[in-house]
Amino acid sequence: MTSPPFTLQDAPRTTEIAFGQIGNIPALRKALPTHRDLASAMQTVTQPLGLVDKTLSPELLSRMNAYWRAANYLSVGQIYLYDNPLLKEPLKLEHVKPLVVGHWGTTPGQNFIYVHLNRVIKKYDLNMIYIAGPGHGGPAIVGNVYLEGTWSEVYPNVGQDEAGLKKLFKQFSFPGGISSHVAPSTPGSIHEGGELGYSLSHAFGAAFDNPDLIVACVVGDGEAETGPLATAWHSNKLLSPITDGAVLPILHLNGFKISNPTVLARIEHEELEQFLRGNGWTPYFVEGDDPELMHELMAKTVDQAIEEIREIQENARNLSDNTRRRWPMIVLRSPKGWTGPKTVDGLQNEGTFRSHQVPILVDAAHPGHVKELETWMRSYHAEDLFDDSGRLLPELADLAPKGDRRMGSNPHANGGILLKDLKMPDFRVHAVKVPSPGGVQAQDTLVLGQFLRDIAKLNQTERNFRIFGPDETISNLLGAVFEVTYRQWDARENSNDEFLAPSGQVLDSMLSEHQCEGWLEGYLLTGRHGLFNSYEAFIRIVDSMFSQHAKWLKVTSELPWRRKIASLNYLLASHVWQQDHNGFTHQDPGFLDHVINKKADIVRCYLPPDANCLLSVVDHCLRSRHYVNVVVAGKHALPQWLTMDQAVVHCTEGIGIWEWASNDKGAEPDVVMACCGDTPTLEILAAVSILREHLPELKIRVINVVDLMKLQSESEHPHGLSELDYDALFTRDKHIIFGFHGYPWLVHRLTYRRFNRNLHVRGYKEEGTITTAFDMRVQNDLDRFHLVQDVVDRLPQLGSKGAYVKQMVKDKLIEHKQYINEHGEDLPEIRNWTWGPNTDMSGRLAAEPPDGN
Q1: Comparing C-alpha atoms, which of 467, 490, 466 is closest to residue 477?
Q2: Top-confidence residue, 5 or 285
Q3: Nearest to 139 by CA among 175, 101, 92, 176
Q4: Which string of b and e fits 720-741 if b means at least 16 CB within 10 Å?
Q5: For position 321, what pLDDT does the model report?
Q6: Which of 187, 281, 562, 664 is surrounded by the most beta carbons within 10 Å?
Q7: For the chain, how big is the Rg over CA atoms in Å?
Q8: How many CB atoms lie within 10 A of CB 760?
Q9: Percent of all residues in the chain with a pLDDT value above 70, rounded to a whole number
Q10: Strands 700-705 and 655-657: what pairing?
Q11: What is the Cβ-side half-sphere exposure of residue 148, based on CA atoms within 13 angstroms?
Q12: How confident is the model at residue 733, as a pLDDT?
């Protein structure tokens, strides 16, 4: 009987690569002659790709496939096995972990990618790191780092033998062991797989200012559905082929998430290609399930991608070709759970969502599955991959790169190794001259911009400092940096653009907090320094990203082989008290609340009251290591309180009595007036001036807090005050009226262990609209008039004098409301107020009281 003609539909999915490369799939389908056998069909469809001229010799292909099998075997062993790592005896239930957890679905595809990247690293002598975007591909990266030898070098107790394999398997998702995703404990990693969406942002951050580095970034197709990742494709418009390295995205289409299909795997080939090309990439497709064909296709494709990257860079660097090119990327379409069990309990497993996590349940309730697991593991033929002692065969081990060329050992993936101190100019040269407290006004971030300009200029040769922000550098008054550098931008320019160039130290030309955060994290993790400036309300967009980075810092601080990296520095400007026209949407100081939830060894929060303090704080933060520093500072003109010398002392201490504003020296205070933040400092001092004018006998102590964590007990935070020091400042029994920048309950939370419970905090309480600056404070009871009322209400000994003062400030609040409704601006006495210990409410100096205070 004659066989029916072979058609394209009968060919493996691998054949699609041919059509994807050539284009015009429908025409090729129509033109393709029918064939009697698979071999002749494949000869036809692979001819346009030149697959007849093999990239891989039969011997190399065989060894690479064996290496892949070894990685797959190690991956399955990590998920399941407690003992019997080489299956030297029949598998029994007691060899399996009591609780089997892990993720298999993405793992074989990542193993496949890793072995092919190893080959091109050796072929082209590449400096390459690997970022694993899919959430739980831990077994793949751990297994490959073990096969290349790095794991045993970092963790000598896990040797290259049978006992080492047993430890490798047991530690995975096991108490006291390692997580199921790529974690800080994984050598070669700068990206934790516990949360999806940031792999490509981290990859670009790593590539900036690293001209010799290639960052291979595997993007999971589930991850590709997240907002941050969908935006990150556009990062290629900000990559300089001259001064930066390259990013090679590998979109891993295996078709499914936990229990749903993925969008990019279900759209038509043409639509997917157009989507990626529309994002500025040249996609190359490797699709199929036949290992032999897939190895050859992948080898050709990876070679082509590397050669294109080199061509782009050489043209730019040697020929000054600034034309924006489409960077190559790879789309790998392979079955979910590739090489795993085809079916389990009568249901298809490989190629479905059922292979996402643990494909076969093996426990006391499913004893029959032990045999299925054994069959699966033996399909990799470990006896042909490892010798009797459990060591990978030398001819396979030789496939991995050597030394620092191994992706698990690349110094860029342990950035502290490469970290150099910033060259820091003297911030004191930018000091605001303060002849007397409150005697001049300045815009704090405008002053800071000049300091950042000097830092940028001083470190241009090193190329290890960048400023990140979502189009807010100018808005936050840091524009002085553009006197010495540019916004990096590789897309088209118009004649009226400002500060754009193919290379620059500022990355703020993409309106995405996610990308700025991800770029900066990648930049820091590979050994550089940076600053992220943002509107305070919109930094909340990256709450989750900050959390992941803080967790990374916490864990890596406990790993002796991980070197400390530069701190993640946030500058939050355009803050809650400066939203005259933006209104309620721009009012959220809650990032501080979120930050202090993290490990005390990691987080620091600073609220400098003026420009000189801001300079001192930022200088400290940029010199620091392995912290998250949050600095909140205003950009509107406000009174300046401290000379530079005073500011340095005050910021070094983090908290202190402002003797010049207090009148309790030599006596017990009647009330403590505390403040934290530039606007609360202004209002507290204004309230103090009213009290000292109208109640001169009142003894007032003024305390300013720069380092928010000083309020916490020293048992809770390294910066916290001892109980003795706290009580010396705030007393053990006097009322404390505290003006705070953020939500009032944060201060209560930080001080809940303190002895003095007479704490009354005024801060932001979710009241706001489009109004004047002072009215924002009034609506939240943080204004001077409400603060005076707070003092009077809590000091009954003031008697009738206090009652008259309270009535006076109540009247002022009514006058204020009437005035702004009519004139659209604050009262002149508010706008023109200046500090003086005896300044009346109109801003004029009152007569000196008899006691000279």
Answers
A1: 467
A2: 285
A3: 101
A4: bbeeeebeebbbeebbbbbbbb
A5: 83
A6: 187
A7: 32
A8: 17
A9: 91
A10: antiparallel
A11: 29
A12: 97
- CA-CA distance, 486 to 508, in Å (whole number)? 10
For tokens 């006495």, the residue is 829
Q: How far apart are CA 797 and CA 266, in angstroms?
A: 76
Phi, psi at residue 198, to the nearest 5°? -115, 5
Instruction: Give the span between the Cα atoms of 562 and 197, in whole angstroms.
Output: 24
| Cβ atoms within 10 Å of 640's Cβ, excluding its own | 27
Query: What is the sign of the dihedral through the CA atoms of 512, 513, 518 and 524?
Result: positive
Q: How confident is the model at residue 164 (pLDDT cuts 50, 70, 90)?
A: very high
Output DSSP code: residue 4: P
Encoded tokens for 744: 């009032």
Find all residues with CB under 8 Å of 278, minimum gap 6, and list them. none
Closest C-alpha to 542, from 514, 576, 572, 507: 514
Report the 10 Å Cβ neighbour count for 402.
12
Looking at every residue in the chain, the average pLDDT score rounds to: 91
Yes or no: say if 349 and 341 are a contact pair by the CB < 8 Å rule: yes
Q: Which residue matches tokens 């508010």? A: 830
Closest CA to 676 of 647, 700, 711, 724: 711
pLDDT of residue 837: 62
What's 441's DSSP letter?
E
pLDDT band at 357 (very low <50, low <70, confident <90, very high): confident
**b (16+ CB within 10 A) / e for 329-342:** bbbbbbbbbbbbbe
Q: State mean pLDDT over 817-826.
A: 95
- CB within 8 Å of 558: residues ≥ 6 apart: none
Question: Does 2 score more than 50 pLDDT?
Answer: no
Residue 132 dihedral angles phi and psi, to the nearest 5°: -100, 105
Q: Which of 126, 319, 331 is nearest to 241 (CA)?
A: 319
Question: Which residues neighbour 511 within 8 Å (Cβ) at sequence distance 6 or greater?
Answer: 470, 471
pLDDT value at residue 496: 94
pTM above 0.85, yes or no: yes
Distances (CA, A) of 707 to 69, 609, 641, 654: 54, 11, 17, 5
Give, in order, the Cα–Cα distances in Å from 642 to each of 566, 574, 610, 637, 699. Answer: 29, 22, 8, 15, 22
Written as six digits, the tokens of 692 are 């000292």
Please give the Cα distance from 65 to 56 (Å, whole number). Answer: 11
- The answer to whether residue 443 scores a pLDDT higher than 90 is yes
> Do residues 70 and 385 lie in contact, with contact meaning Cβ atoms separated by under 8 Å?
yes
Average pLDDT over residues 609-614: 98
φ, ψ dihedrals at 7, nearest 5°: -115, 170
Quickly tell me which residue has 């759970």 as its tokens: 337
Q: What is the token pair recorded at 709?
A: 């964590």
Q: Which residues pair with 605 in a beta bridge?
A: 630
For residue 72 the two structure tokens come to: 């797959």
DSSP one-letter code for 601: T
pLDDT tens, position by position, 367-400: 889 999 999 999 999 999 999 999 999 999 999 9
Please give the backbone phi and psi of residue 441, each rounded to the nearest 5 degrees, phi first. -115, 155
Does 516 have pLDDT greater than 80? yes
**137: Cβ–Cβ under 8 A, 6 or more apart, which residues?**
103, 106, 107, 110, 181, 182, 193, 218, 220
Question: Residue 96: helix, strand or coil by DSSP?
Answer: strand
Helix (H, G, I), strand (E, B), or coil: what is residue 572? strand
Three-state secondary structure along 56-84? CCHHHHHHHHHHHHHHHHHHHHHHHECCC
